[in-house]
């Protein structure tokens, strides 16, 4: 702060009042310069924070875009998975229907085979009955043949003995 050179004593009172005013203004200017410097520092700090926030915003925008792409990709994969699941469910249902149809066909075939087997068993029983009846008849005929043969031999023997 500069000091004004003192002028003559008559003007000393005015000069002293003016010096006082100048001194006050200089103090005010110094205070304003200090306040201005403080405001500039605050402004620089805030600008630095704004720059950092803008950088963060840019990073967030980039990350958001990546996440959107990942979400879209995941959505596409999910759709593909759902389509695959639907196809597999359809095939499973078709397989179950085919299996059910095959099981029904096999059960029908098994029932048919059982009926055929029962018929064959009945035929076998009938054939055994016929066979047993024929055996009894053959036995009867053999016995009759033996009796007749024995009678013929006896009658030959009797005839031959009469001749003798």
Describe the overall structure.
With 164 residues, this protein is mostly helical. It has one domain. Helix content is 93%, strand content 0%. The chain is built from 1 helix and no strands. The longest helix has 152 residues. The protein is rod-shaped. The relative contact order is 0.02. The N terminus is likely disordered. Keywords: Coiled coil.
Topology:
Layout: H1 12-163
Roughly how much helix do the residues carry, as a percent range?
over 70%
| Gross geometry | rod-shaped
- Poorly predicted parts: 1-10
Distance between the termini: 197 Å
What is the radius of gyration computed over CA atoms, rounded to a whole number of angstroms? Answer: 66 Å
Number of helices: 1
In total, how many beta strands? 0
Broad structural category: mainly alpha
Strand content: under 5%
Mean pLDDT: 88
Whole-number count of domains: 1
Q: Main beta sheet, described?
A: none
The SSE string, one letter per element, is H
Coiled coil: 22-151
Keywords: Coiled coil
């Amino acid at each position: 702060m500069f000091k004004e050179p003192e002028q003559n004593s008559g003007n000393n009172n005015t000069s002293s009042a003016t010096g006082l005013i100048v001194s006050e203004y200089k103090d005010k200017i110094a205070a304003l310069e200090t306040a201005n410097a403080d405001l500039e520092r605050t402004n620089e700090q805030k600008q630095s924070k704004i720059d950092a926030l803008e950088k963060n915003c840019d990073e967030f925008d980039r990350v958001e875009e990546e996440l959107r792409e990942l979400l879209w990709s995941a959505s596409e994969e999910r759709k593909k998975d759902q389509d695959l699941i639907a196809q597999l469910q359809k095939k499973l249902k078709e397989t179950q229907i085919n299996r059910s149809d095959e099981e029904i066909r096999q059960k029908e075939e098994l029932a048919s085979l059982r009926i055929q087997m029962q018929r064959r068993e009945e035929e076998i029983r009938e054939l055994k009955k016929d066979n047993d009846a024929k055996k009894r008849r053959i036995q009867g005929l053999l016995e009759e043949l033996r009796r007749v043969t024995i009678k013929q031999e006896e009658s030959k023997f009797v005839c031959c003995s009469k001749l003798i």
